[in-house]
Design a protein that fits this description.
The structure is a single chain. Helix 1 packs across helix 2. By secondary structure, the chain is of the alpha+beta class. The protein is built from two helices and five strands; from the N terminus they run E-E-E-E-E-H-H. The longest helix has 11 residues. The strands form two sheets. The protein has a three-stranded antiparallel beta sheet with strand order 3-4-5. A two-stranded antiparallel ribbon has the order 1-2.
Length: 90
């Protein structure tokens, strides 16, 4: 059974829920030689950060460990966090 979360009407994309048991969306596109297009979502699971990566030429996104994405496509990771993090002046 597939569980999904919706990240908002603006994107129109339903995202797979990442859990310890759900390996369907953990395919590492980097190992398959895919080129990353953008990061859609970030998720903390079992103390590890995963990024939902959209791949060029591939319809379905997949989760990759943030530590891997940081090394393979740092500019895409930086762009994602710049757009999605709220900074405080406190």
């Amino acid at each position: 059974m597939s569980e999904e979360i919706n990240i908002g009407v603006a994107t129109g994309i339903s995202l797979p829920k990442l859990s310890s048991l759900n390996l369907k969306y953990r395919t590492n596109g980097f190992r398959l030689g895919l080129e990353p297009e953008m990061i859609i979502h970030s998720k903390l699971v079992d103390g590890r950060n995963y990024l939902l990566m959209k791949w060029k030429g591939v319809e379905k996104p997949s989760y990759v460990k943030a530590s891997v994405a940081n090394k393979k496509c740092p500019s895409i990771v930086i762009d994602f966090y710049q757009k999605h993090l709220a900074w405080s002046n406190h």
